[in-house]
Specification:
The chain has 546 residues and is an alpha/beta fold. The protein is 34% helix and 21% strand. The chain folds into 2 domains: 2-296, Rossmann fold, CATH 3.40.50; 402-522, Phenylalanyl-tRNA Synthetase, Chain B, domain 1 (2-Layer Sandwich), CATH 3.30.56.70. The strands form 6 sheets. Strands 7-6-5-8-9-11-10 form a 7-stranded mixed beta sheet, sandwiched between helices. Helix 1 packs across helix 12 (365-377) and helix 15 (424-433) packs antiparallel against helix 19. The longest helix has 18 residues, at 54-71.
């Protein structure tokens, strides 16, 4: 099949015109179908494509639709009036074909700053309503040729504009020209760090930023704390099982620190640790008042290198005060600390310090509800091959505790104190009986988030095993022995003792609301992993261009 090629690049954005192609000879390409798009790949593979990232793209389509429904430019009357007014003015000022096309129903401008084949942009054009224009940008001429060829092949060339530029140059030029985007998608190789500042300045009020980082060896690994700090301004939970959540918190902090310079804040809508990368969806708005909360919303975490117990230290405090006129106001104060001694009170291990990183909730539950609704009501398995996985992972995220950073696995705790691994529901029933909440986490199977103090975690886990272990037989140098043999020193025997509200007399392992909720979730048979990963799947290297 031969098709005439369309290689026009809209010159307003960049004057580069790639070599004219008279026609597309389909036999020269491999065709890959994903979602609603069919993409022509050069048989030489000169442009990046990773099929395993379909989950990322399926999810992104769904999230952009949810964001548009809840917060997009037409989501409330005030903005609607403003846009109608602007549309009217634009029509009066300019009667070009392009503007004539910008009817009331197509209003979203999207930038895919690092586009490769154009697959993502083409899917957005096909699958998301109200698209006015998607600029699909890449640094490589071969990529931009691929974007334009594929836009033509998929009949969306009136919406998808290929653009050849360094992403930062494009965004800063846009800023200078006053062009902004409602949605900016940053899906780089490795870290997103170099693109954050420009993107935050090129986004509309309440705009959606979609950010991927695939450099998890840095962001969640054990070997590069110095690199993590240099790139993200903080260190991950090195050698700790919850390091993937610290990766998310570091990315949010990076975004918020950059946004604060422009009096903007970043509100996390959905932050996921997925396979070999993290993907965060955030809403960006100008709000000098909320910028003031950044200090208190940022924390460092002291985590014991032996037993993994941890304490979070917020870097500022917000205190409610009353002025002379009786009016309440917030006083922003420095933090008090440290919250821990020089050695871990449970096992005498050494503390390591992680962060600074974001301390607040990772998800907006209303947003997740809308994403799940769209996933269920509007999408079908034939187009959205990862629909079941979206449902599984987002259901877990929706049920995560908001106010309990990080998680632990009863497996790990039991191996430290050398007791039998208890069923999750028993641990949760125990913590629930003491008045604490628990949830699962999307980031790691069989792990728990809880707002219980670590005293309660160690105590409940030690009581889950009723085999009456003789601790004198344990190696006295192990963390487990030290924890169990010093229990009288750190465990409050009555409520209010040792500055704790823990009341151990209430402990039972009878099923309760907490454990029943957890069991219901676990029965959902949640799909956590990609359905058909390819051989040796993971982050793909850049294509070899030589
Ligand atoms: C991981 S791929 C993008 C994949 C694509 N978003 C998708 O869903 O298939 C990263 C792309 O960014 C491009 N790139 C790298 N640095 C860039 C820069 N500074 N400006 C623009 N594009 C860049 C690369 O050429 C590559 O095509
Ligand atoms: Zn310890």
């Amino acid at each position: 099949m031969i098709r005439a090629a369309f290689t026009k690049i809209k010159s307003k954005i960049n004057t580069y015109i790639p070599p004219q192609q008279a026609q597309i000879n389909v036999e020269d390409y491999n065709i890959v179908k994903e979602g609603s798009a069919e993409i022509l790949f050069s048989k030489k593979e000169t442009v990046f494509y990773n099929p395993v990232q379909q989950f990322n793209r399926d999810l992104s389509v769904t999230c952009i639709k949810a964001w548009d429904n809840l917060y997009g430019p037409r989501s409330n009357n005030k903005t609607q009036k403003k846009i109608q007014h602007m549309d009217k003015r634009r029509k009066l000022n300019n009667s070009s074909a392009k503007n004539a096309r910008s009817d009331n129903d197509s209003y979203l401008n999207i930038l895919e700053a690092l586009s490769a084949t154009g697959l993502r942009a083409i899917r957005y054009a096909n699958e998301i309503p109200h698209i006015k224009e998607i600029v699909a940008n890449d640094l490589l001429p071969a990529a931009v040729e691929s974007i334009n060829r594929n836009a033509q092949y998929n009949n969306v060339e009136d919406k998808v504009t290929g653009n050849l530029d360094d992403a930062n140059v494009l965004m800063y030029r846009n800023k200078a020209q006053g062009t902004k985007y409602h949605v900016i998608d940053l899906d780089p190789y490795g870290t997103v760090t170099p693109f954050v500042d420009a993107a935050l300045q090129s986004i509309e009020e309440d705009g959606l930023m979609l950010v991927t980082c695939t450099d998890l060896s840095v962001l969640a690994g054990n070997g590069y704390p110095e690199k993590c700090f240099a790139l993200y301004g903080g260190v991950n939970l090195v050698s700790h099982e919850a390091t993937h959540e610290s990766a998310l918190r570091l990315v949010i902090n990076l975004l918020n620190q950059s946004a604060a310079k422009y009096k903007k804040v970043v509100e996390p809508l959905l932050c996921l640790s997925i396979d070999f990368y993290v993907r965060v969806f955030v809403k960006v708005r100008t709000s000098p008042i909320e910028v003031k909360q950044l200090q208190s919303n940022t924390m460092v975490t002291y985590h014991c290198s032996q037993c993994g117990s941890l304490e979070n230290q917020h870097l500022g405090r917000m205190l409610e005060r009353e002025g002379k006129n009786g009016k309440k106001y917030i006083k922003y104060a420095v933090a008090q600390g440290p919250p821990v001694d020089t050695k871990c009170k449970f096992c005498q291990g050494t503390y390591h310090v992680a962060g600074p990183m974001y301390a607040g909730p990772l998800h907006n539950k209303k947003f997740i509800e809308e994403v799940l609704r769209i996933n269920n009501d509007e999408h079908i398995d034939e187009i959205y091959g990862t629909r079941k996985r979206i449902e599984g992972m987002l259901t877990l995220a929706q049920n995560e505790l908001d106010d309990a950073p990080f998680y632990f696995s009863p497996n790990k705790i039991s191996s430290i104190i050398k007791l039998q691994v208890p069923p999750l529901k028993k641990v949760v029933a125990g913590l629930g009986s003491l008045g604490y909440d628990c949830s699962l986490t999307h980031a790691k199977p069989s792990s728990l988030k809880t707002n219980a103090p670590w005293e309660a975690v160690w105590y409940v886990l030690s009581k889950c095993d009723d085999t009456n272990k003789d601790i004198s037989k344990m190696n006295p140098n192990t963390a487990g022995y030290k924890i169990l043999s010093t229990i009288d020193e750190w465990l409050p025997k009555t409520p209010n003792e040792k500055n704790s509200n823990l009341d151990i007399t209430k402990l039972t392992f009878e099923p309760n609301e907490q454990s029943e909720h957890l069991e219901k979730l676990r029965k959902l048979k949640i799909v956590r992993y990609q359905e058909n990963p390819t051989k040796n799947w993971g982050p793909k290297a850049r294509p070899n261009l030589s």
